[in-house]
Amino acid sequence: MEGQLADQLSRRSVSPDARGMLLYVTIGHAAYLATDGSVWLEGGDEDPGSVQWSLAKPVERIGALFIATKYYPELQELLPPRPSDAPTCTQCAGRGHVFAEVVCPSCGGLGWVSDEAA
Ligand SMILES: [Zn+2]
Known about the structure:
Strand order of the largest sheet: 1-2-3-4
Distance between the termini: 46 Å
Bound molecules: zinc ion
Strand content: 15-25%
Structural class: alpha+beta
Radius of gyration: 15 Å
Number of domains: 1
Order of helices and strands: HEEEEHEE
């Protein structure tokens, strides 16, 4: 039983087409990190039998990586460093979250506005 679960989890940690590692899963979609650093979103499909992929927009990529740093702290390296002149995000007032654990859609959880998120 434990072996089965571990096997399922390890298989789930790679995208169905084996091109990326799972960053997180939530209701309606999952995010995967590809070997080239791009982030791909799976889901949002109306047909349960089909898989739809979309390339994450820059702020979505940052948000997905930010969420995944909870599970994989080493992914912090892929987040942009804050420049000294970067403005604090006005939507979340620098908290990185807009409501409970919902990552800020403007800054992707950084708490400041990155040129990469623009
Ligand atoms: Zn923000």
